[in-house]
Write a structure and sequence with these properties.
The complex is a heterotrimer of chains A (259), B (290) and C (341).
Chain A: E1 8-19, E2 22-33, E3 37-41, H1 48-55, E4 63-68, E5 71-72, H2 78-84, E6 86-88, H3 101-109, H4 112-118, H5 129-139, H6 158-170, E7 176-180, H7 188-203, E8 207-211, H8 215-221, E9 224-229, E10 232-237, H9 239-244, H10 246-251
Parallel strand pairs in A: 3-8, 3-9, 6-7, 7-8
Antiparallel strand pairs in A: 1-2, 1-4, 4-5, 9-10
Helix pairs in contact in A: 3-5, 3-6
Chain B: H1 2-30, H2 37-54, H3 59-85, H4 89-109, E1 126-129, E2 132-135, H5 136-158, H6 160-170, H7 172-177, H8 182-204, H9 213-229, H10 234-254, H11 259-274
Antiparallel strand pairs in B: 1-2
Chain C: E1 7-14, H1 30-54, H2 58-84, H3 91-107, H4 113-132, H5 140-161, H6 179-200, H7 204-214, H8 216-221, H9 226-252, H10 263-275, H11 282-296, H12 303-318, H13 322-332, E2 333-340
Antiparallel strand pairs in C: 1-2
The chains are: A alpha/beta (259), B mainly alpha (290), C mainly alpha (341).
């Protein structure tokens, strides 16, 4: 694994998000250091995805602030946040269904950030973005020989779509990658092929936040875990500490078999 | 002048409620934008005129027949057109708009143009309210407007059909699971909406003359009221009608009649830019705006 | 033995001509080249030879130009609706803005028509884009309604405030120097717009525009401004629309509130839907069908509108793919009946 540092990359300071009378998040704080893989766990409806939406600018938190590299990003537009290097996958996968898989990656490759950082300017009519896109996909396990990268995204099965989501983020050259339930809906073998990939990405220096229900796999990659319940932060710490925390046990009581 | 604005603004507002409610009802129940609304409005007027003047039926009978015809036309429009393009919002708009255009221009081609066609008022006479002369047809309009609102309210509360309509309006899928046929309710909503616009036509047309252009005007007025009140929100429709009715009457009293339309168009554009879900009624999670 | 009922089904086979795959340009026989070029050449030459054929009849020459004008407006609608996902019911707004600006540049500043048209195209596109900017976050029916209102509001404002020449409009605008400049200026403009837009939608920038239609949240998550992308697309579409408006007023030497009329918003939609949505060429074909049709029905007054409103409804409801998509399928696939055993 990479060297973990204590240099904070993302600071979430007592963020609250209220929808009308519903408190989806209540006073949640979290610091993510460079090189971390932070897991966020919690039962359904505990505010995990809401927190991600707040970080990535899809929602503006009611209270509190979020800083990236010490710069305030609270309430910034989603594309500005993405441009700074915080990239996310969606829990409900959102590929461009009408395009071939590799074209899904050409779009982030054409973004200002990718042009600036990746140097993928694209020469000629279609440029080399197509080639770069296929290369990224191949690394994610899209078999080039069986022409999987060229298939319409709408025709791909879930496993590929999850990886396509990841690919879309990787094309942005992210600093902080936020994965919203990449493991859910995948078979055991698909997950076990995805875990080394995530370890590899982390080794390349990408800091990660992972929202997960699959705790076993999550604990293989995460070095720190935060537990949420009803929008409140219950605890935070080493995976083993968190899992043995009585309140976490209580919150997860209905799903013991996950452990 | 003050009382003048108070009284006539009130009447204008009720007229707007009548014009817009059919459109609002259809959109509220089935999310169908019925852009043929204005055409149905004008057509009902002409049908009533034909029954009354050509067929020589008594006025009341021709009015009822015309309203039934409007309802049937609504059912026809639903089953022939809307049902096939349901869910494709833009196709719904284009198809209903084109049908409305065909109806209106068809009427024009058949020679219904100019100010020569009029419907008789249901009641004659003039009364004074706050020393402002108001003819009885306008009072009738106000009374009928309120009656209509009350009827719809009672209908959606206490009858099976009304509750089905309301259920579909709130959550179409859930209603379907409870055994409500969404096609039948949608067709009923379109029919009811068409009949309401027919009723409006028969009350409002006697105040002026029957002209084809009125169809386009009514469509824009209806859209304006519904957009300002929030598309699909019935309470919002009524409130928006009053706001727009008074502002229309005030601009006419102090400016040129041209401004009547300017007010409406500006209201639509401004509302959609500032707050697309409308200024009145419930705020929903905005899907229409990114 | 019982007689088996003979059943047939239709089999569709792609002709399998691949122009380019990922990076290879694969054209290896004259037959294939001509197969690909034939439809493109047919369209281009058709428009280029049109003035030569029609020159003895100036009236029909004008009809030919009307086809081009409508085609330009329809391309603009098709691009916005089917590539960007913004269904604009206010094509007349682009048209009118272009027309009025060109009229002012010509009558007030004395610019010659060619310059006035060019300036009006660009200025008009800027004006339209800025005017529509606040509406760009709207989607679906909301955007459709708001754009429908823009040209109507222009008419009412001009009437109510008596600005821009009031209901009279501007008269005495300079025409073109000859029949040939008038014809070829517009035809080349149309072909340029058509091929430029077709090329654009296949570039990476065009791909981003199409991605906005497919899934705007993902575009946003990819660090690309959705509103900015939409604004660029509206600029391109309004360039096309403003050019049509500016050109038209120089053909007829006057401009009035009819430049914002509803017909000009509806006709392009009809042409696009009949011709085939999402193809850019389809709208041109649609225009080439609708304009002559409406010329033939000219004597019947408003029946004309009834006819194309009904045709439009028919296509929306029963044949929403339009002619072009149908023809492309027929051209690119071999169909045959196969017995089912």
């Amino acid at each position: 694994m990479t060297q973990r540092t204590t240099e904070p990359i993302l600071e979430i300071n007592s963020v609250s998000m209220h929808f009308g009378g519903v408190k989806a998040l209540n006073n949640v704080s979290l610091t993510v250091n460079r090189g971390d893989v932070v897991g966020i766990i919690g039962p359904n409806g505990s505010g995990k995805t809401t927190l991600i939406n707040c970080i990535t600018g899809f929602l503006k938190p009611t209270l509190g602030s979020i800083a990236f590299h010490g710069r305030d990003i609270t309430g910034k537009k989603p594309h500005k946040v993405a441009d700074m290097g915080i990239n996310r996958t969606f829990q409900v996968m959102r590929p461009y269904f009408t395009m071939p898989a590799y074209k899904n990656l050409v779009i982030p490759l054409s973004s200002p950030r990718a042009k600036r950082i990746g140097g993928w300017r694209g020469g000629g009519r279609h440029g080399d973005r197509n080639t770069v896109a296929v290369d990224i996909l191949e690394e994610l396990g899209f078999e080039r020989d069986s022409r999987v990268p060229y298939k319409l995204a709408g025709t791909l099965p879930t496993g590929y779509l999850k990886r396509l989501e990841l690919g879309r983020c990787l094309a942005m050259r992210p600093e902080l990658l936020i994965c919203d339930e990449v493991f859910s809906g995948l078979s055991a073998s698909e997950i076990s092929s995805l875990v080394p990939l995530i370890e590899k990405l982390n080794a390349q220096g990408i800091t990660m936040i992972m929202v997960e229900h699959r705790l076993v796999e999550l604990f293989r990659v995460a070095n720190r875990v935060m537990a949420l319940s009803y929008g409140e932060k219950i605890t935070e710490g080493q995976p083993q500490e968190v899992i043995n925390h009585p309140k976490v046990r209580e919150a997860y009581l209905g799903s013991e078999e996950d452990f | 002048m003050f009382y003048d604005i108070l009284v006539y603004g009130f009447i204008q507002s009720l007229a707007l409620v009548l014009m817009a409610f059919g459109f609002s009802l259809v959109y509220g129940v089935s999310r169908l934008p019925n852009f043929a609304h204005g055409a149905i409005y004008v057509l009902t007027g002409f049908v009533a005129w034909i029954f009354f003047n050509q067929a020589g039926l008594p006025y009341f009978v021709s009015a009822v027949l015309a309203i039934i015809a409007a309802g049937l036309l609504g059912v026809l429009i639903y089953y022939l057109i809307l049902k096939r393009v349901r869910g494709m919002e833009v196709s719904e708009v284009i198809a209903t708009y084109a049908i409305g255009l065909a109806l209106l221009e068809g009427l024009r081609y058949m020679g219904f143009r100019g100010g020569t066609y009029t419907l008789p008022p249901a009641v004659d006479g003039v009364s004074f309210i706050f020393d402002v002369p108001v003819d009885h047809q306008r009072i009738f309009l106000v009374v009928l407007g309120f009656t209509m609102l009350a009827t719809i309210w009672l209908l959606t509360r206490y009858t099976r059909i009304g509750r089905a309509l309301k259920g579909v309006a709130q959550d179409e899928r859930a209603a379907m699971m409870l055994g409500i046929d969404s096609d039948v309710t949608a067709a009923m909503a379109v029919a009811l909406g068409s009949m309401l616009s027919g009723v409006a036509a028969l009350i409002i047309f006697p105040l002026g003359s029957l002209v084809v252009e009125e169809g386009y005007k009514v469509l824009i007025y209806a859209i304006a009221v519904c957009v300002v009140g929030g598309l699909g929100s019935w309470a919002g429709t009524v409130m928006a009608a009053f706001v727009l009715g008074y502002s229309q009457y005030i601009t006419v009293a102090y400016g040129k009649p041209h401004f009547q339309m300017v007010v409406m168009l500006c209201a639509i554009i401004a509302t959609l830019i500032i707050r697309p879900s409308g200024f009145f009624g419930k705020q929903k999670q905005l899907q229409e705006r990114v | 033995m019982a007689e088996t009922i003979k059943q047939r089904r239709r089999e569709r086979i792609d002709r399998g001509v691949k122009v380019r795959s990922a990076s290879i340009y694969a054209l290896n026989s004259m037959e294939e080249i001509s197969y690909l070029l034939a439809p493109r050449l047919l369209l281009t030459c058709g428009f280029l030879f049109m003035p030569l054929v029609l020159s003895p009849w100036p009236y029909w020459g004008r009809v030919g130009l009307s086809i081009c004008i409508l085609a330009l407006l329809s391309i603009s609608f098709d691009f916005l609706a089917n590539y960007v996902g913004l269904v604009s019911l206010g094509g007349a707004f682009f048209y009118g803005v272009g027309g009025y600006i060109s009229a002012i540049l010509n009558t007030e500043l004395g610019l010659p028509p060619a310059l006035a048209i060019m300036a009006a195209t660009i200025l008009g596109a800027i004006v339209c884009t800025v005017a529509l900017l606040p509406c760009l976050p709207l989607r679906g029916i909301y955007f459709a309604i708001v754009t429908l209102m823009y040209p109507l509001l222009m008419i009412r404002l001009i009437e109510a405030f008596d600005i821009l020449g009031g209901t009279e409009g501007f008269r005495g605008i300079d025409g073109f120097s000859s029949f040939w400049t008038e014809q070829y200026g517009l035809i080349l403009g149309l072909l340029a717009a058509l091929f430029a837009l077709r090329r654009f939608v296949n570039t990476d920038a065009g791909l981003v525009v199409r991605a906005v239609k497919d899934n705007d949240q993902s575009v946003r998550a990819s660090g690309i401004s959705v509103t900015g992308t939409k604004a660029k697309a509206v600029f391109l579409a309004s360039l096309t629309g403003c050019f049509a408006g500016a050109y038209y007023i120089h053909m007829y030497s006057n401009v009035g509130i009819s430049s914002f009329a509803l017909d000009l918003s509806i006709m392009p939609i009809a042409a696009t839907i009949i011709g085939g949505s999402g193809t850019l060429v389809g709208p041109v074909i649609g225009a080439a069908i609708l304009v002559p049709l409406s010329e033939l029905l000219r004597d019947f007054g408003s029946l004309r509108i009834v006819v194309y409103a009904l045709v439009l409804t028919g296509f929306v409801v029963f044949r929403s793919e339009g002619l072009m998509n149908f023809l492309t399928r027929k051209y690119q696939q071999i169909e045959r009946w196969v017995d089912i055993r």
